[in-house]
Amino acid sequence: MTRQNSFQAIEWTDSGLLLLDQRCLPHEQHYLCLQDAVSVAEAIRDMVVRGAPAIGITAAYAVVLSARQHLEHNPDNWQARVQQDVKKLAAARPTAVNLVWALQRMQQRLARSEAEPAACLLEEARQIHEADIEANHRMGGYGANLINKGDSVLTHCNAGALATGGYGTALGVIRSAWAAGKLVNVYAGETRPWLQGARLTAWELLQDDIPVTLVTDSASAFLMQGGKVQWVITGADRVAANGDVINKIGTYSLALACRYHGVKMMVAAPLSTLDMAMPDGQQVAIEQRPTDEILKFSGHALAAAGATAWNPVFDVTPASLVDYLVTEAGIVAAPDREKLAELHDQAPVGHSSSQNS
Ligand code: MRU
């Protein structure tokens, strides 16, 4: 694997797929070793691993586990069994397009009926993983070029090495800009209710000795009003054909506040996050997670007994609020349908779009 981080969130080993259990961070670095695709689907659903590219890569390795298991135990109909596992994996989380994108890549490889199918599938999963890391480094460079020396940034959720194959999308840009000596302050929004910002982004940046200041999600507009940030930089779970960005809940509020305060909104996402089959963001299935994520904290009730909650975990930011979309193929300023079609046409084979799962 090229250009590794100080930690690996996803690692293929001979004894199984190692996943850093992100539910335990920042207090504990605990790895699960998974041996079958059904356990991996559960791990994706339960947020052991999360972040759009990371769940795609994880699902790709899960197809290898599935093929190994069924080749051994059900040699007569192993491919049908793998397809059943693929369905379970695709259903694990509905919003990130990278999950179905990676599974489609694995299915295409499966359909080639090669000798040593498990080894070929492993090769494919590794390619997906390595290409994601490369894409992130490229995006990091492009995004950092947009940033002026002396700027400060706010990021949301965790779009870092934990959420990708390595290096990160939004955090890749921040890492590159920091390494270039451009950034004064990096702010991270807590990202209620799962606290990806407080638990994961803060941990990840500090692993690289990048100082980070946490703010509550509700402090961001005030941070902008005080002129403390020039950029908001996020990742994406899906970018629709018209440039609408589907990302962690709160991204839309940030983009609105950015426009009002003249702060630039940058979205960094690989081409595998582009969904040309989805005309606009209103078509996407937004994941609703258990309301206990809001009503409780670490198992303890937070809210008044009897209160109900609404917990959509992603939102849709209209393309008109995005100043720059940064991909590994380059920067798209003020993304729209025409510019994304052009970007997609230039993209290398293997970056085809996919349907809502
Ligand atoms: O619910 P999560 O933690 O999986 O949500 C993750 C995000 O919203 C990220 O911003 C997105 O997947 C981009 S990760 C490079």
Structural description of this entry:
With 357 residues, the chain is of the alpha/beta class. The chain folds into two domains: 10-134, Up-down Bundle (Four Helix Bundle (Hemerythrin (Met), subunit A)); 146-346, Rossmann fold. It has eleven helices and 16 strands. The protein has helices at 37-45, 52-73, 78-90, 97-110, 117-146, 170-179, 196-207, 220-225, 251-261, 292-295, 337-346, and strands spanning 10-13, 16-20, 31-34, 151-155, 183-189, 213-215, 231-234, 238-240, 245-248, 264-268, 274-275, 296-297, 300-301, 314-317, 324-327, 330-333. The strands form four sheets. A seven-stranded mixed beta sheet has the order 6-5-4-7-10-15-16, sandwiched between helices. Strands 11-8-9-14 form a four-stranded mixed beta sheet, covered by helices on one side. Strands 1-2-3 form a three-stranded antiparallel beta sheet, covered by helices on one side. Strand 12 and strand 13 (300-301) form a beta hairpin. The longest helix has 30 residues, at 117-146. It is globular, with a radius of gyration of 20 Å. It starts with 9 loop residues before the first strand and ends in an 11-residue tail after the last helix. The relative contact order is 0.12. It binds 5-S-methyl-1-O-phosphono-5-thio-D-ribulose. 5-S-methyl-1-O-phosphono-5-thio-D-ribulose (MRU) binds next to helix 2 and strand 9.
